[in-house]
Design a protein that fits this description.
mainly alpha
Length: 114
């Protein structure tokens, strides 16, 4: 059940990022759902490895380098999923920032109710 809630939060966050950021485009709800699933999978599998490899840089930047890692996860997902396109690094960076903020706020809201 926790997986489905987390997936729904990521899908909502990605959908809002698509609406706000001009350089992030999705062709239909199916592509949005698959992209959010892939981003969640990448965050669960590859992101911890990236965090470990960039730990000194992450410590030096007080954790803000994590946004760059989130950006890379979004770019990887855009390369794999048809119908999910990113025009450049900065579009993906702003989308990662928006997704992080929305996910954080929705997590707080969902945990308050449970």
């Amino acid at each position: 059940m926790n997986f489905l809630v987390r997936w729904a939060i990521n899908t909502i966050a990605l959908g809002v990022a698509v609406l706000i950021v001009k350089g992030v485009m999705v062709n239909g709800v199916f592509s949005l759902i698959i992209a959010s699933l892939l981003i969640g999978f990448l965050n669960a599998t590859i992101k911890p490895i990236f965090l470990l490899l960039t730990l000194p840089l992450n410590i030096l930047t007080l954790g803000t380098f994590t946004l760059v890692i989130n950006t890379i996860m979004i770019i990887i997902a855009a390369e794999i999923v048809r119908g999910f396109d990113i025009t450049g690094f900065w579009s993906a960076f702003v989308a990662a920032l928006i997704m992080s903020i929305i996910s954080f706020l929705l997590d707080i809201f969902m945990n308050r109710d449970m």
